[in-house]
Write a structure and sequence with these properties.
22% strand; 10 strands; Ybab, Chain: A; Rossmann fold; alpha/beta
Amino acid sequence: MGFRNRVEAGEELAGLLIAYADRPDAIALGLVRGGVPVAAEVATRLRIPLDVLVVRKLGVPWAPEVAFGAVGPGGVQVLNDEIAGRLDQEEIDEVIRRESAELRRRELLFRHGRPPLDLTGRTALVIDDGLATGATSGAAVAVARQLSAAQVILAVPVAADAAAARLTRLTDAFVCPLTTPNFGAVSRFYDDFHQLTDADVTTLLTR
């Protein structure tokens, strides 16, 4: 089982998220970059606003796939003390500096003059195109909570079993039509999984 492309994946997710259709508090938040076309389809079908949630995972210097925290809009910073406590402060500061710079670049590009993201009292549907380790999505959930979302729903078309189990505990609801123990890469589950450019994301958001 899989999907032709991210649009079809968004169609399937929208069907599972129908309870949020037309809700004035709901907002679809696409994770940059691959989550944005999925979120765009969800937003269109549920008739709710679309926005982008720019987060940057803070990876351990010698094992970048292991996150010790995340940074998000408005100076939001979330640290996993259990992992961060094993690092030198200089190492932490350098990763935060680098990832914060990239986050500012993407925020300037993708917000495109729109006001800062405010999730106060909102039901945030955090959407990505797949969940392998869950590190980035987990960071996004933490950032959404720091931005005062009333509820955080994580919705992805496909996920590894282990990541799904962990993220279920971190969210108010986890929505995913396909989970599997033998995951590999997200791209395995799409016929078309081309890499999106910044321009592709900007076009979806402005449309």
